[in-house]
Amino acid sequence: MWNLLKKTFRRTPPPVVAQVPVAGLAYYRAEDLASLMHRGDLLDLRHEPDNPHDANAVMIFWHHNKIGYVPSEYARELQSLLDRHDSLCGKIVEIDPHSEEHRWVKFNIYPPRKAL
């Protein structure tokens, strides 16, 4: 029982990168999914080496739905982290689909999901 409680209340490790906006929300299903997405939801990050615009591109998925990309200014660093860690995950820290901003989802990036 005690081990289960410790696992449940384990502290989240510090983020590798904090407050990253999701780019390209308007081009994917993010607006359709906005009412289902919440602060604290986990995101999967995947390197897309064959992307014709950026070999460092990192795609962002929420429950297997592509919602956008890590902005290019973060992508090179994250792509190298993905190569070292095999995987990284994100956690939504801010979401406001009614915002005037075109990047209305922000998330923190963490080591592989097993650390969360």
What is the number of E strands? 6
Distance between the termini: 19 Å
What is the CATH class?
A: Alpha Beta
Helix content: 10-25%
What does this structure look like?
There is one protein chain. With 116 residues, the chain is of the alpha+beta class. It has a single domain (18-109), classed as Alpha-Beta Plaits. Helices cover 22% and strands 30% of the residues. The chain has helices spanning 2-8, 30-33, 72-85, and strands spanning 17-21, 42-47, 58-62, 65-69, 88-95, 105-110. The protein has a six-stranded antiparallel β-sheet with strand order 1-6-5-2-3-4. The mean pLDDT is 82.
Q: Secondary-structure blueprint of this entry?
A:
Elements: H1 2-8, E1 17-21, H2 30-33, E2 42-47, E3 58-62, E4 65-69, H3 72-85, E5 88-95, E6 105-110
